[in-house]
Write a structure and sequence with these properties.
The protein is α+β, with helices and mostly antiparallel strands. It is 19% helix and 31% strand. The strands form seven sheets. Strands 8, 11, 12, 13, 14, 21 and 26 form a seven-stranded mixed sheet that branches. A six-stranded antiparallel barrel has the order 15-16-19-18-17-20. A hairpin with a 6-residue loop joins strand 2 and strand 3 (32-34). Helix 2 packs across helix 4. The protein starts with 13 loop residues before the first helix and ends in an 11-residue tail after the last strand.
Length: 426
């Protein structure tokens, strides 16, 4: 007797039948059909799944947990306004009987347009009927994680645009060498306790307020590896137990509490070719020009336009390319045949560069995730499943806006590390 085999799929062909305009495509006629009815889950179930979504999203809100939260009132348009207080000057000496001039107390308004984000998945009726686990709850868990990561990256991507940056020194045999650009960072330019101390000193001099008496650093695990290997970190944590109060917190040094996340920004750039990260100069460039012949990988025409590349030690912006020639914005010269062409968005030779964000109170702001209309949307198979009720859909959507409030309360430290040659851009 042959065993019965069931093909259980979470995201089956059903997903391709769902149309984002508000219905599904009839597989037999090809016509657009509307969803029937409304999302009519009971109030209790709706609240339960919304809560489950939010709880799973919260675990991934690492950058977001330190943002100043702004409520999002309904019926107020698509522009949200953040406000920050102007600072006051120090008090002057009072003279007897003379009323001093008053300082003007005010706030600055910064506006940002809202953006909406969301995604969904389809669950087949076969899976829903025969799966051992609770499919809806499992999908909600995964959607919650997706929602949290999405929200957090949106905040992070705003944070890393700040104007205050600190490039780590290259250190060889105890000798320090300053680095002028991100492209000059190599694997000897690592985050050290001394670099943290520099950042703290800068924030103090800028009078950046702390968060409960400490500054915060958001750090990538690859950078945390280097920092934890330092003698100062080991000594600081040899006897003292850290009281972890923030999501992802790993320890404290020089008045900074460190929070670790894989979503800390990594600058690296995508591979230059479909089958190779780097390319090679095919023909030596002996006279000033903007054309570079290359070999060593398969590159589609126009695929590199707008990218930055490192060639012959020079950082160049690509204005166009064919399958074997790159055109750059500014002239290049004296480049030998065989010279490496590497992605230029990261460090030397295309190495991954990590952004460690060190900041104080209210440096940046965002819409309160719990007030940003984050909601779970479920259409059961009677609503979304086509003529034969073959699939349900589950998804989420939310509105977002975030921005830097005080540039002088935040520093981006850029460094390479032990894993810079394997980590990818995120």
């Amino acid at each position: 007797m042959k065993a019965l085999r069931l093909n259980l799929q979470l995201m089956a062909d059903a997903g391709s039948l769902v149309n984002a305009t508000g219905g599904y495509v009839n597989a037999y006629t090809g016509a657009q059909e509307p969803f029937s009815g409304k999302d009519d889950l009971s109030v209790q179930m709706k609240e339960y799944y919304d809560t489950e979504l939010l709880e799973n999203a919260r675990a991934n809100l690492v950058h977001s947990q330190f943002a100043k939260k702004q409520g999002l009132p309904k019926n107020r348009g698509r522009i949200i306004e953040f406000r920050k207080w102007n600072t006051l000057e120090d008090a002057g000496e009072l003279k007897e009987g003379v009323i001093p001039a008053a300082q003007k107390l005010g706030s600055t308004s910064i506006s940002k347009a809202l953006t909406q984000h969301g995604t969904y998945t389809a669950v087949t009726d076969i899976l829903e009927l025969h799966a051992i686990d609770d499919v809806i709850l499992g999908a909600t868990t995964e959607l919650g994680a997706s929602a949290g990561t999405t929200q957090d990256k949106l905040v992070r991507n705003v944070m890393v645009t700040g104007t205050n940056k600190q490039l780590c020194d290259k250190v060889a045999n105890g000798a320090h060498t300053k680095v002028a650009t991100r492209a000059g960072l190599d694997k000897t330019a690592r985050l050290t306790p001394d670099e943290i101390n520099k950042a703290v000193t800068t924030l103090k001099k800028l009078k950046a307020p702390t968060i409960n008496g400490k500054y915060i650093a958001i750090i990538h695990p690859s950078v945390a590896y280097d920092l934890r290997s330092s003698d100062e970190w080991i000594e600081a944590h040899k006897y003292a137990a850290t009281t972890e109060i923030f999501t992802g917190e790993i320890g404290e040094l020089h008045g900074v509490r460190f929070v670790e996340t894989t979503e800390a920004k990594v600058f690296a750039g995508a591979d230059l070719a479909a089958d190779s990260r780097t390319l090679k100069v095919k023909t030596a460039v002996t006279a000033a020009g903007k054309s570079i012949a290359f070999e060593g990988g398969t590159v589609a025409a126009g695929a590199l336009k707008g990218r930055m590349i490192l060639v012959g030690g020079a950082l160049c912006e690509v204005t166009g390319n064919t399958a074997d020639t790159i055109t750059v914005k500014d002239n290049v010269n004296n480049i030998a045949a065989g010279a490496e062409i590497a992605p230029g968005e990261g460090g030397a030779g295309g190495l991954a560069v990590y952004a460690t964000m060190v900041f104080g109170k209210d440096a940046y702001a965002m819409i309160d995730p719990e007030g940003g209309n984050l909601q779970m949307i479920i259409k059961d198979k009677s609503q979304a499943g086509g003529p034969l009720d073959q699939f349900s859909t589950l998804g989420y959507k939310f509105e977002n806006a975030s921005m830097i409030l005080y540039e002088d309360r935040m520093i981006r430290i850029e460094s390479c590390g032990e894993y810079s040659d394997v980590d990818e851009e995120n």
